Amino acid sequence: MKQVIIDLGGANTPTRAGTVDAVLSFRPFFDYVKKKITTGQTDKLSFYQFVFEKLKQFELMDDPVNIEDSSRYAELFQLIHASITGITTEDDETLWGLASPITSTIFYGTDALINLLVDKKNHSLNKRVWDADEIEKRKLTFIYSGLLEKFYDYALQSKNGMAISFTDPATGLLRFFQINKDSRFINVTAKEKLPALNFRKLEKHIHEGSFNDYMQKKLPLSLFSFRGFNIIFLTDITVQHVIENIKNSIIQSATRPKEACVGDAIHSLKTLIGSKDIDFGFIPLVRLNNRPLLEFGSLSNSILLHNSLAAGISEQNFMSLINAYLKQPVPVFLKGVDKYKKSSHPLLAILKQSRVTSFALIPLFHNSQLAGVMEVYSKKDDILDERKLLRLDAVLPYLAQLIKTSVDDFYQKLSNIVNEKFTSIQTSVQWRFYESAWHYMQKKFLQKKDADIETIIFEKMYPLYGAIDIRNSSIERNNATREDLSCQLELLINAFNKISKDYHLALIDEIIFKARKWLTVLQEGLSPSEEYKLNSFLGDEVMSILQHLKKIQPASKAIIDDYIEALDEKKGKAHENRRNLELSMQLINSGISNYLDLMKIELQQSYPCYFEKIRTDGVEYDIYIGQAIAPEKPFDLIYLKNLRLWQLQSMAAIYKLVQGLQSQMPKLLHITQLIFINGDTIDISFRNDEKRFDVEGAYNIRYQVIKKRIDKVHIKDTDERLTQPGKIALVYFNNKEAEEYVSYINYLQEQNILENNLEFLDLEELQGVAGLRALRVGIVAEP
User: Fold this and answer.
1) I want to staple 259 with a disulfide (CB 3.0 to 4.6 A). Which of 298, 547, 665, 766 is the partner?
2) Distance of CA 676 to CAs 170, 317, 435, 489, 735, Å?
3) How far apart, in whole angstroms, are the C-alpha atoms of residue 150 and residue 226?
4) Is-contact 592 618, C-beta < 8 A?
5) Of 236, 267, 283, which one is at a domain's C-terminal end?
6) Containing structural domain, residue 295
7) The pTM is what?
8) For 657, phi and psi rounded to 5 degrees?
9) Which residues touch 76 (CB under 8 Å, ≥6 apart)?
């Protein structure tokens, strides 16, 4: 125990001695001990009797004590300490002291408290990290809280302690404490009658943060006299403060860089563990394509990762080490690395290379899932021990959450790059896009500038192409347009005939003449230039006249409105044929598209493949399958054969699906079905500009060219189109390519899915393409 005078407060505050009637006195304590003896309700009666006799010897119970003379009363202070804390309390364990009744001046304290507050070398206060004026503000609030409770029976708030922090001279790190006060030994009396208070106003000032100012005005401390002393004791709240800091880092990680938040967390951990010589590293568990991704930017501050190559550990061996640990992630502590001189374990080799003397690996679990691993290590002897490691237990869940947010953020960045640089992609090839996105992030991190995205290529893929087309869709669309235009012209002629009965104008007769002439032209067929002229006639010339007639001939308004209403694309009679055609085409395409979407999911279950669907007047699809799609899953030709059989089965199923929809079609339509057989593999690459896959290389482009030209191919030396409703056409180059499909056709004929009418056909020569052949077989119709 020591006598000192330490001022923790500000220099000019309302509670400074001289501005408040506050006197250091021991009368309240004397009365406290006397009461204990009088009541006899204590198991320490003999002790209090001893203290009481000692107190009487000092003969200062009613005299004020000058704080500068406090060193004369060391024995008294020891008795107070023993009475309050117990005689078994060790001096070096408690942060306990005596202070003046109002100011923040400590005049006596335990060794532990004094050593914390005072620098032994220069006998000055240790570096404080708090605002003294803020401390005084909180203390003033605390005082007024007690006054309101004592004199007005008004409970303002709980009398919680005030938090302060010191830079620990031994470690150079912050330590956080809560100042608690025991004011039992302060007698407060009012010097005069106290004023009434408006508690509604008081609460308003509490809400607005002006409570102290309001109270000093309405109830100045000069109205009171304070006699006695404060007991101050500090509680170490470093652990709680560190937890709050890490929680704040988690919250701030939504807006601040993750690296900065992790850096703050590491600084907090050094504070918690109490040593600048202990360092921390993190290995967030990121899996890319089912493999742990260990190096991903500035978050990878792991000493193991950074020093594995320097220790002569190959990447393969290091990954084996990591994978073995991930299978059984348990805490590991190597207190003395030098003790394992004969061991050749890769972990020890890395630590020795890094000059680490003590090392711990601590797994971090978030919702029972491994989020990452924390490294704790020191390069100095006898610094890291089990006791320090135990201090980390309280913060492990919060560290796991922080690392989990970093991992989630990394995945989100990958996803953003994939969506920005590529497009919405299929699951089967998603792994390759994320790998490319990761390489892009690496380049940006290393080069500190934007980088080029690499080209994604899948080599030696087996292609499958199928097309379901609406038969004569262009002709059907032209016919529907012609029929609707004829309807519009007849409606126009009828409208002008009605108007001319009541309003005679030569221009009306001219419009009727032109409309009849256009009807004749429509029956013979429109050229592109004639179609343009007709639209100009109906859109510009006719509409301007109709608008003029509505103004000068109000009686014609209803007739003109009926005509204009008939032109409405959604409901008007003049669009009925085109509307019916579009509804029928949408019905067909939606049915086919939905079927293929379901099949795409089913096909992935046997072996991953890329399935791209293209909407035209019908539906086309490209399928690519091969080892490059799923490097970790062995590819076999059996998966390709399964897809080819599926092609034929699905074409038959789609035909029957469309047959079932025909009763719902406002315009009856039919479909044709085409398959292109290509026995050789091709390479495909993702075109970043078009956000889609395309073939790679001159030879492979030929495959794409043939696909585009065979949809309207004819049988050799005839005018007959290869594709016909109710039949599947399969185009190929040589018999070997067709043999496999013939066996599938025979199987489906046995299953009564295909007709027994297989044809072997030669096809006409197309531009740049000769020697094409085809199979054609009918589909068994539903009875």
Assistant:
1) 298
2) 80, 47, 32, 45, 13
3) 13
4) yes
5) 236
6) 240-421
7) 0.51
8) -60, -45
9) 26, 54, 55, 58
